[in-house]
Amino acid sequence: MTIDFRNGTWLNAPASAEALDTSLTMTTDQKTDFWRETYYGFTRDSGHFLGFPSADGFTAKIRIQGEFRTLYDQAGLMVRIDEKRWVKTGVEFTDGELFLSTVITDGKSDWSVSQPFKELEDFYIRITLAKGAMRVQASRDGSFWPLLRLAPFPIADTYQVGPTACTPERSGLNIRFSEFEIGPAITKDLHDLT
Question: What's the predicted TM-score (pTM) here?
Answer without folding.
Answer: 0.96
